[in-house]
Amino acid sequence: MPLLFWRLTDFVDTSSLVLMVLILQ
């Protein structure tokens, strides 16, 4: 299911972005 895959990668991108912001603070 490509849609599920895209949503999963989008979630991973968002969570990694949040994690990076938390680390850089």
Map the helices and strands.
Blueprint: H1 2-24
Summarize the structure.
The protein is mostly helical.
Describe the structure.
- The structure is a single chain.
- By secondary structure, this protein is an all-alpha fold.
- 92% of the residues lie in helices and 0% in strands.
- It contains one helix and no strands.
- The longest helix is centred in the middle third of the chain and has 23 residues.
- It is rod-shaped and about 35 Å long.
Major sheet description? none
Percent range for β-strand residues: under 5%
Q: Roughly how much helix do the residues carry, as a percent range? A: over 70%
Q: So how many helices?
A: 1
Distance between the amino and carboxyl termini = 37 Å
Task: Give the beta-strand count.
Answer: 0
Low-confidence stretches: none
Order of helices and strands: H
Radius of gyration: 11 Å
Global geometry: rod-shaped
Look at the structure and give the mean pLDDT. Answer: 87
Keywords, separated by commas or semicolons:
25 residues; mainly alpha; rod-shaped; 1 helix
